[in-house]
Design a protein that fits this description.
Order of helices and strands: HH
Radius of gyration: 18 Å
Helix content: 55-70%
Distance between the termini: 48 Å
Shape: elongated
Structural class: mainly alpha
Number of helices: 2
Strand content: under 5%
Length: 75
């Protein structure tokens, strides 16, 4: 068996899953809020906020190593 070219850290995989799940949650929460068919439910905004928090958590986990090795340099 050949070795895979790269290995993803488990937190990166978790971040990807949370980010995609958050996008799906935000979209499914926005459809009833923006749709003209029915008035929004009282708890719909709560679902939107929770989905946005899940998406943000996934984003942070995906980008956790972006600024790790940078020095404080003045431009």
């Amino acid at each position: 068996m050949s070795k895979p070219p790269f290995k993803l850290h488990p937190l990166t995989i978790l971040g990807l899953v949370l980010f995609i799940g958050g996008i799906i949650g935000v979209v499914t929460s926005l459809i009833p809020l923006l749709g003209p068919t029915a008035p929004p439910e009282p708890g719909q905004l709560t679902r939107l906020v929770v989905s946005a928090a899940v998406q943000f958590t996934g984003y942070v986990l995906l980008n956790r190593n972006r600024f790790r090795n940078r020095k404080n340099t003045k431009r």
